[in-house]
Design a protein that fits this description.
Length: 222
Amino acid sequence: PATILAVGAVIALLVDAFFPRRTWLGSGLPSTFATVLAGVELFRTDGPDSYTFALSLIVLAGTLLVVLASNVMNFENAMPPGEYHFLLLSSAAGGLLMLSARDLVTLVVAFELLSLPSIALVGLRPGDRVAIRSAWTFFLASVVSTAVTLMGISLLYGITGTLRYAEMQEALKATSFADDVVAVAVVLTVVGLLFKLGAVPFHVWIPDTYAGASVMIAGYLS
């Protein structure tokens, strides 16, 4: 499903680049088709009993809702539709990869793929100072949370010698490190991830980010 969204993002960008006239529907159609196809592939591969399936379905349903709503944004002249759909689907692909990750390296890379296009979406309106300020707030929060997460992950790797979830769980049970060292590593990792997600009580940057984002992007982020 993530690969289908990534391919759909590139097609949407190319359609907008070579379409004879500027229209939101031009890049919106391949985006809609790619999101629906990703959902079909999700049902085919994961099945309805998987925890990953349930969360991935939420990501795809939310993305499809935003894509469909965006097809009526012909009044929007400030944001380029091709780049909008490219960034939106790229971010959603990162969300799917994040949910299917089985190790911390994939998780961090997927988180960045989710957040960096989202930052660009918030500041996509050229000349809009509020949007640019909100994008900078989002960017700084993302950078700080990534740094904290990587510090925690590096400690966990030093303690366990692995970055895979299953192997790390077994290694933590048998570790000879002091409990406070393990606690610091886990707390740094979890706090960094929660801060990046904007989960309570690490959500202080969320209101300013939503204030500068368009209605569609604020809906997608939420």
